[in-house]
Design a protein that fits this description.
By secondary structure, this protein is mostly beta strands. 7% of the residues lie in helices and 43% in strands. The chain contains one helix and 19 strands. The strands form three sheets. A seven-stranded mixed sheet has the order 3-2-1-6-7-4-5, with no helix packed on it. Strands 10-9-8-13-14-11-12 form a seven-stranded mixed sheet, with no helix packed on it. Strands 15-16-17-19-18 form a five-stranded mixed β-barrel.
Length: 313
């Protein structure tokens, strides 16, 4: 028969064995030694890195050179109207507004528009607008494009350049004439010389006949001193002179009193102004053939009498 002490020791031994088995069951077993493999140095070979090359089947976008000018709309041809040539030094080239500003020989400034239709020449060879530099001596063949002045041709370094201009005489000082050109907002001074010739009604006349208010055409040349010198001055109309026009009415505006006539004599178009004190003729309309007696007053033709020859039906 076991003693109480022996029984107590046996119970303690059983408890210890029980706790040990529970602890073993809850502990994760270590993997077998065969599952842990340390790689050898011979197995660690660096992979060879090759530069990437595109596949032969890869899509490629080819670069196509396009001329920017082909993307622009087709421009209308330049007006065939008679050009006025002006000369001076280039004061400003505005590539944003496509405009050149010229400091005119004899004083004043004017601006003219340009576009791809404008031709630029240096010593007879065509160049581009980019060849223009501030201070260059240039000459512009200009025409009216609506209400704007358009440079049809720009010439650089043209020593023998000259031109023709039409306008109203503002002053005649004997050695210099001040002219108001229809294309130039500022008056232009043109020198006179002993060789300048004066004509009126196809006849040679005295320079004293030229007076303020006269309508003239001036043929001039540019000299190296920066001044325009007149070669010939043709007086087209003197103040108070009467003229007879025969032709067909192209346009009439009774509100402004403007009548535009296509002359049957020289086939040119003339602007005539109606006398505001005369009542309008109901038979006066575009297409009517008329004879107009007009006087040149205040730099324009003022109709005194209008006779209707025939009418278009």
């Amino acid at each position: 028969m076991k003693t109480p002490i022996a029984l107590r020791l046996a119970e303690i031994a059983v408890c210890v064995a029980l706790f040990a088995s529970l602890a073993y069951a809850q502990t994760t077993p270590d993997p077998p030694s065969s599952a842990v493999v340390s790689p050898s140095a011979t197995d660690m070979k660096p992979e060879s890195i090759q530069p990437g090359t595109p596949s032969i089947t890869e899509d490629r976008t080819e670069s196509i050179a396009v001329d920017p000018t082909t993307l622009l709309p087709t421009l209308p041809s330049v007006s065939g109207k008679k050009a006025t040539l002006v000369g001076g030094t280039l004061d400003r080239l505005d590539r944003v507004r496509d405009q050149v500003t010229v400091r005119l020989f004899g004083g004043g400034q004017m601006s003219a528009l340009f576009d791809p239709r404008t031709r630029v020449y240096r010593a007879g060879k065509q160049v581009t607008i980019s060849d223009l530099r501030q201070g260059d001596r240039i000459y512009l063949d200009t025409v009216l494009d609506g209400t704007s002045v358009f440079a049809r041709v720009i010439r650089l370094d043209s020593a023998a350049a000259g031109g023709e201009s039409q306008g109203i005489v503002l002053n005649n000082r004997g050695d210099e004439v001040t002219l108001r050109d229809g294309l130039n907002p500022s008056p232009v001074d043109i020198r006179l010389s002993s060789s300048t010739k004066f004509f009126y009604n196809h006849q040679s006349v005295s320079p004293s006949l030229l007076q303020p208010g006269s309508l003239v055409t001036v043929s001039f040349e540019a000299h190296g001193n920066g001044h325009d010198v007149a070669r010939e001055i043709t007086i087209l109309a003197l103040p108070g002179t009467r003229f007879t026009f025969r032709g067909q009415v192209v346009h009439i505006d009774l509100r402004t009193g403007l009548l535009v006539l296509n002359s049957a004599t020289d086939h040119k178009t003339y602007e005539l102004y109606l006398d505001p004190s005369s009542p309008p003729n109901d038979n006066l309309h575009p297409g009517a053939n008329v004879t107009v007696i007009a006087s040149f007053e205040d730099s324009r033709y003022v109709a005194q009498t209008i006779t209707i020859v025939s009418q278009e039906k």
